[in-house]
Write a structure and sequence with these properties.
This protein has 118 residues and is mainly alpha-helical. It has a single domain, classed as MazG-like (Helix Hairpins, Orthogonal Bundle), CATH 1.10.287.1080. It contains six helices and no strands. It has helices at residues 8-21, 30-46, 53-61, 63-87, 91-105, 108-111. α1 packs across α4 and α2 (30-46) packs antiparallel against α4 (63-87). The chain is globular, with a radius of gyration of 17 Å. The chain starts with 7 loop residues before the first helix and ends in a 7-residue tail after the last helix.
């Protein structure tokens, strides 16, 4: 499996199967999922804590660290998928709508190569 061949729906279905097999639906309230997401995001952040920008890039490329980073990123993604399932949100639709909103807010001509807001 890879990003090139796996759909978001396949990932959502896999997450739903995992949850269903364990009968965890009763625990998957939005509040709990968002809290779990925050915790997993913090665990991902720990891999880059106290590093400068270049060191963080090196850490992300370091074969000794990539597996642990990938595990934490997968945990974050699983919580996002579980939350989308719980709330019955179309994740692809939400992402594309947000990108469109951000494109209007940050026009390329005005923001290319810079991040400051006026």
């Amino acid at each position: 499996m890879s990003d090139a061949t796996t759909t978001v729906q396949e990932l959502r279905n896999a997450m739903q199967r995992f949850v269903s097999e364990r009968q965890w639906e009763r625990y998957h309230a939005p509040k709990n999922l968002v809290m779990g997401l925050a915790i997993e995001t913090a665990e991902l952040m720990e891999h880059f804590l106290w590093l400068d920008v270049e060191e963080s890039r090196q850490r992300g490329a370091d074969p000794r660290c990539r597996k642990a980073i990938a595990d934490e990123l997968a945990d974050v993604t699983c919580y996002v998928l579980a939350l989308a399932n719980c709330l019955q949100l179309d994740l692809s639709q939400a992402v594309f709508a947000k990108l469109q909103k951000n494109a209007a807010k940050y026009p390329v001509e005005q923001y290319r190569g810079r991040f400051e807001t006026e």
